[in-house]
Amino acid sequence: HGPHTSHDVVLEEDIDPPFKPRIVTVQKNKSVTDQYELLEFLGRGKFGEVKKCRERSTKHLLAAKFLQINRETDRTEAFNEIEIMKALQHPRLLQLYDAFETKSDICLIMELITGGELFERVIDEDFILTERLCELYMMQICEGVNFMHSCNIIHLDMKVVEFIFCFIFEVY
Fold it and tell me: Where ATP is bound, by residue (predicted)?
């Protein structure tokens, strides 16, 4: 494999979305594992952990984000996140697929994005970041942010590590 260039990039708008937009209703006191098979651990954040999962009926691969509920404010914040994600149905933004609530946690079933972080990609010594790629990446980021703003939603803590790719490309 040689260095990656902008000629190797498939624009993400050329990729079909993983699922059609859905109306998500939080399922109360139902087990996530009745509808989803939990697979490998993907990561841990400040409020919970994320696992890969597979919907039993469709075999869709998705991500299950488990938010621990220790206080009532945790529950309120989780429901705020769900409402925001429901409002933000756009191809440049992470999509919500399903949601579950129990006494101890709230689980968000979301689009699985496996292409890696923008930051990791641009610091990879085998990756050639061209001016054209910068233009494409910035255009796609701005499309997502512009849509958020058009819905009167702002992101207060945007960082380069939060931008992720839908796919990994290989050069042969």
Answer: 65
pLDDT in tens, 95-116: 999 999 998 999 999 999 887 7
The pTM (predicted TM-score) of the whole model is 0.80
Strand ranges inside 56-165, DSSP E: 61-68, 96-101, 105-111
Residues 98 and 67 in one domain: yes
| Domain shared by 63 and 24, yes or no | yes
Q: State yes or no: 65 annotated in a binding site.
A: yes
Q: Which residues are catalytic?
A: 157
Q: Are 12 and 169 in contact (CB under 8 A)?
A: no
Report the number of distinct structural domains present in the chain.
2
Whether residue 24 is found in the same domain as residue 83: yes
Angle at 138 between CA 157 and CA 108, to 5 degrees: 45
Q: Is the pLDDT of residue 151 over 70?
A: yes
The single-letter code of the amino acid at 66 is F
**Confidence at residue 20, expressed as pLDDT on a 0 to 100 scale:** 80
